[in-house]
Amino acid sequence: MPDPGSSPQQSSTPAAAARAAAAPADEAESGEDALLTLPGPPSFPSPFPAVRETAQEIPGSAPVTESAPAHRAVPESAPVPVPAPGRDDGTGGETTARGGEPNSRCTEEDAAAARHARQASSVLERILCGPSGPGTSSLRPGRREVSPACGVSEGSSVFGASDPPAQGEPVPGLYYHPVPEPDAARVGEVSRRIKRWAVDEVQAYPPEWEEEFDGFSVGRYMVACHPDAPTIEHLMVATRLMVAENAVDDCYCEDHGGSPIGLGSRLLLAHTALDPLHTTGEYEAEWVESLQSDAPRRAYRSAMEYFVRKASPSQADRYRHDMSRLHLGYLAEAAWAQAEHVPEVWEYLAMRQFNNFRPCPTITDTVGGYELPADLHARPAVQRVIALAGNATTLVNDLYSYTKELKSPGTHLNLPVVIAEREGLSEKDAYLKAVEVHNDLMHTFEAEAAALAAACPVPSVLRFLRGVAAWVDGNHYWHQTNTYRYSLPDFW
Amino acid sequence: MPDPGSSPQQSSTPAAAARAAAAPADEAESGEDALLTLPGPPSFPSPFPAVRETAQEIPGSAPVTESAPAHRAVPESAPVPVPAPGRDDGTGGETTARGGEPNSRCTEEDAAAARHARQASSVLERILCGPSGPGTSSLRPGRREVSPACGVSEGSSVFGASDPPAQGEPVPGLYYHPVPEPDAARVGEVSRRIKRWAVDEVQAYPPEWEEEFDGFSVGRYMVACHPDAPTIEHLMVATRLMVAENAVDDCYCEDHGGSPIGLGSRLLLAHTALDPLHTTGEYEAEWVESLQSDAPRRAYRSAMEYFVRKASPSQADRYRHDMSRLHLGYLAEAAWAQAEHVPEVWEYLAMRQFNNFRPCPTITDTVGGYELPADLHARPAVQRVIALAGNATTLVNDLYSYTKELKSPGTHLNLPVVIAEREGLSEKDAYLKAVEVHNDLMHTFEAEAAALAAACPVPSVLRFLRGVAAWVDGNHYWHQTNTYRYSLPDFW
After folding, report:
1. Which of A123, A186, A416, B245 could potentially form a cystine with A434 if both were Cys, beta carbons 3.0 to 4.6 Å apart?
2. Model's pTM, two decimal places?
């Protein structure tokens, strides 16, 4: 995982008095959610008009719904069925996604069609980038509108003149999309609840790390990345997992006692908190006990328990797979660290596709209260879009954490460092080349996502693609504005 | 992965002359298959009569089909729709599995019902163990009938008096099911084709390892484990993957140059042959080239290429997930090896749930030419059955390879060794306790599978469960009879 949770730069603050033991831990299931629940599920702009206009240029593309008016490029506010929250009881929850969507409409979504579609995807890119047509203001709940929402000038300031200026500057030359400031009430409530969970439920960190935990701003991060979450509890699902992932990274891999030595054992045993052991009664008890034995395992176990209440079995399986990828990535990086080896650039990029934010954007449907069906998620074109998005977001982390990692003890691999070493470039030129690599991946992600949307115009696919794009944008927003953690190098 | 491909005990034989270069590598797609293709898809005994008898005792169990006669315990030969082979063109192939099965019939398949069902599962266990009713002789194509097919006496000889005696003795006291001798014509053809692939297509091993490769008997192994494969090419899908997995294990982890040092890097880069890198054009070329750079990567890449032609995207995703688990397991074991650390027994069992045969039985549907739908595969009860089966098969490997591993340099962890060390038992007592652990897992696997079959009597689920059970039985058969590789300790 990229390291949004590490770096104890200022970790000597005493514990806050607020850590009193009396707070109940069960508010997730209480009625508090109603205070910050959206009035209703967000209505989505119908993708079909835009899709039709594009699809007409795609050889072999599937027919679109007959009710969609032709020759209309701007998405309308015609609502499509959206998920109803609350799958906690195990019954229903999703509507359009599971079982209801005609997968056969995607049979023409092959590589050739995708490449053709890419060339005619400007309208679809607008769909992916965010709401811009009439009647789409409810698409990004919890955000104030900002103009322009898309079509970003590279290196521009995040907020318009009428918005409060965000802290931090974007990396010059970086291709990204600004987002509206996340809703303060949601951020406040998620921040309050996540601290209570971390402190009272799982004891994720000792008192002296409190300032660092606050500086992580994980509530703001997750609200920015999941604008369509129907309730605070949906946001909490993502937020707990993010904190847990960072507890593992910090305590096992990086700053807080982490080490490449023995990491394979630690990560596997922690992974059983996500992907449970099935063994004999005699040995199962010791395994169950082990899940309470350190902060990373307590956090994984509890966060997963909440997650599976909202996720379908296939969504949980998807998350476990992504986490096993993440752990493989940690272990490749650890092997290089142990040998003090700097890999080739392509090898680093391969490792970084695994040690990657991927587990975070791919739960966007669970957090949004719907499901991208497993058979659609598994399609190569969807897998490619997810991988490209994950890789772009992860390189954003490399770029923003560059100076922080330079200050850390030892050599911390990131893309600029590896390019400088392997391609004989100056630190500045290597950094600028890393920006180009990121931009290239972002452009490819958007083109492939647009092509996929054209080839497979199923509502859950379109919503999932928008969710991943929103995560990409929110992730950049968080990195740029987290001046507690990040500062840019002096290359310009 | 358990180590069915390692141990170069007799590896000095010169290369065979048969390694001539002229053989074409495209026979997989040729008409040769017809020679050994089954005359038609096997007809399955209807599980419903038995299910009904059991289901009546399950609180809240789902209704069964009305056409199923009640009070009939013995499975009949009423065929259910079965897959048509040949999904190579990407269109269709499966029939009952994808889209056609009523998943809702499984909504009552929860833990409580499963536990109740387990108590009334003797009939279902018979279904899982193998054909015994009238009209089921076509269930295990390529095998001669053997009696008794199920209801095995522990520690009995594998074959009846009328069958040719198999080589090797079973571990005394081990709970297992004997299987009929695999069809010699199929074994011969798979053996011929796999050697051609290994030698000519992917150069999986140097000439001096030929005897070891032959001693592996992978053709016999896979024919024994996949009795319902409709064609030789379906068997080849499993056989190539098995050889590739063992090439990685041998060359990266174990006997042939393997080491825990740097393993995390090697495994991740090899994993990209299964789960491809998505990066910029500049770096992609070097990655593509890397996939040809050593035997493990050549083998993974090619075997996966053949596999995805037969598998659905969800089946390929499942396999990738299982392989990432396997690689995590390797890395946990490597961490202990590097530190010369003997884990607790439960920790060893957790590692062994990952360093596990699991990727092999879970492709049983692809090899059988049908699909267990992703949403059913992901259900916790199915995941549990798969994990238990994988754990039992893997401990079979620990028991049969015990003396081989004792002869290897260094301490090779296996369950008897870990139990002896951690629980202060003699080698013999530790071995006998390991047998008990295996038997316990086998009994639990069968009980949970029977409960699942009762709770979710969907044809693809039942066939998948039988496929996993067949893999478990075939795996034992191969271990017992592979006297080239294995011999029992002198404890009885």
Report:
1. A416
2. 0.77
